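Researcher: Let's do a round of design. I'm pasting the C-alpha cells now; please hold your answer until I've finished.
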C-alpha cells in the first residue's frame, strides 16, 4: 500500500433552502425543463448581449 497517497475532495454540493410556491402543469414544465417557475432561467445567448 502507498502510505503517501493524497486524498482529494472532488466536489461539494451547495443547495440553498427553497420555498415551494407553485408549479406548472407537466406539459409546460417539460417545455421549460422544470415544473418550478422559481427555477426557470431561459438561456440567453451571446447575441443578446452584443446588441445591448
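Researcher: That's everything. Go ahead.
Model: Designed sequence:
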Amino acid at each position: 500500500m502507498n502510505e503517501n497517497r493524497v486524498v482529494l475532495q472532488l466536489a461539494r454540493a451547495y443547495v440553498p433552502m427553497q420555498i415551494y410556491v407553485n408549479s406548472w402543469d407537466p406539459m409546460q414544465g417539460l417545455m421549460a425543463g422544470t415544473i418550478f417557475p422559481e427555477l426557470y432561467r431561459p438561456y440567453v445567448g451571446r447575441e443578446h448581449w452584443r446588441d445591448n
